[in-house]
Specification:
The protein is about 35% helix and about 20% strand. It is of the alpha/beta class and about 425 residues long. The chain has a six-stranded parallel β-sheet with strand order 2-1-3-4-5-6, sandwiched between helices. The chain starts with a strand and ends with a strand.
């Protein structure tokens, strides 16, 4: 009988796309996929390490596997695996730890691992990780996540991602288009473009050195990518996942406002509404720039949905700084927040900063902003009641109900109707 494998993703949409690609690689090698709650021969956990909770969740999942399937092989990959391979290898039950350069070589490594041996670590110096590997989800949900960029050259003081993912690198535009056409051929209707620093998309140049610099044009950027994707037949919707405000140019905003395929939906990290804290975070913008970006989007697309990332409890964030962030977000015409409670990450500058905000205060601030997010989304949704918008319904039957999203990311829930599965429906909100 074929061996079975179950996969689980922690973290971002990019991780989700990579987990899906790893699953397809293993299916190609003869493995049969199982749900993560089922018993399997191999379990793969693709980890995140943005917060301490992500690390804890990984350890919790390993313990759960040990109780359910003690003879199964347990493989840990992803950001946590690259940052702390020795720590993961010491977790009882872990058999294989794959760093950033080895995650897509999982099939070969599995052939060399035996249950009961000491955990095998396959990792490398992150400076040696310089190749881009395309990945995307498929058959997992109606919206497909397509990775077009990886790594980050920024050095935000709180972030471990450059240490976990390496330098910024991107796919070629031609290869992205080929992947999009292949996804379209399988019946998908919507693609979400993902990356670690998506706006820093820069296609690789086959030439080297001074010659490459001489022929590189300013058009080889994220704008040129989305302009080309807009021409591809077969995909009806594109979304841009998280994009830095300093890289979200006026030209990109204007292009999306005129496009029929790129949806009126942006997710723009802010992290703090205090210029003092933004400086400590080593972010590459101030509040004024962020305000300009939101203003231009809403001028061109009043119906546009805008999501915002915010970190609370950063070292040195006083009550006044937090109130400044709250006031700033309250007056902005945005739709929802993703709120993160700051947690100290090893080998980051922020981990050495003082004064440290007590955990209970961090958690209180998180609750305040999550409540604001709920109010913002209610206000945004209510403003569209009575309107007719296009909804793409997903293919899952959830206890007799189904879900879909409007073009501007309003979630619609309705009794299941198989005729609407993976179809775009005119819907009165």
């Amino acid at each position: 009988m074929n061996k079975t494998v179950a996969l689980h993703t922690l973290g971002c949409k990019l991780n989700f796309s990579e987990t899906s690609s790893i699953g397809r690689l293993l299916e190609h090698e003869g493995f049969e996929k199982r749900d993560f709650d089922e018993v399997a021969d191999v379990y793969v956990i693709n980890t995140c390490s943005v917060t301490d909770n992500a690390d804890k969740e990984c350890r919790m999942l390993v313990r759960r596997i040990q109780r359910k399937a003690p003879e199964a092989l347990v493989v840990i990959t992803g950001c946590y695996a690259q940052l702390k391979p020795q720590e993961i290898a010491a977790i009882p039950g872990v058999d294989l730890v794959l760093g950033a350069a080895e995650k897509f070589n999982i099939a070969a490594h599995l052939k060399e691992v035996t249950k009961g041996d000491s955990a095998k670590i396959c990792s490398c110096d992150i400076e040696d990780v310089n190749e881009f590997t395309a990945s995307h989800s498929i058959n997992d949900r109606t919206r497909i996540f397509l990775k077009v960029q990886d790594g980050c050259d920024y050095n935000c003081s709180f972030c471990t991602i450059p240490m976990a993912r390496g330098k910024s690198r991107s796919d070629s535009i031609s290869n992205v288009i080929a992947n999009v056409e292949a996804i379209a051929a399988k019946g998908a209707k919507e693609i979400v473009l993902t990356g670690i620093n998506l706006g820093d998309f820069r296609p690789p140049n086959p030439l080297k050195g001074e010659i490459a610099n001489a022929v590189r044009t300013e058009k080889e950027n994220f704008l040129s990518l989305i302009e080309e994707l807009d021409k591809v037949n077969g995909i009806e919707r594109f979304r841009i996942s998280s994009i830095e405000p300093n890289l979200l140019t006026n030209e990109i905003i204007e292009f999306v406002s005129n496009s029929k395929k790129f949806m009126p939906h942006f997710h723009i990290p802010l992290q703090s509404g205090s210029d003092k804290i933004l400086g400590l975070m080593r972010r590459r913008y101030k509040k004024d720039l962020y305000t300009e970006r939101i203003g231009l989007i809403k001028t061109m697309m009043p119906h546009c949905c805008i999501g915002v990332d915010v970190i609370v409890g950063f070292p040195g964030e006083t009550d006044e700084d937090f109130q400044e962030t709250f006031n700033f977000l309250h007056q902005l015409d945005i739709s929802y927040l993703h709120v993160f409670t700051y947690s100290e990450r090893t080998n980051t500058l922020a981990a050495t900063m003082k004064p440290v905000v007590p955990i209970n205060i961090r958690n209180e601030r998180n609750k305040v902003l999550r409540n604001l997010s709920y109010q913002k989304m209610q206000y945004f949704t209510n403003a569209h009641i009575g309107q007719t918008r296009k909804v793409l319904f997903e293919t899952k039957n959830r206890n007799g109900m189904m879900e879909g999203y409007t073009d501007n990311y309003i979630k619609i829930t309705t009794p299941f109707n198989e005729v609407w599965e993976n179809n775009i429906v005119e819907w009165k909100i």
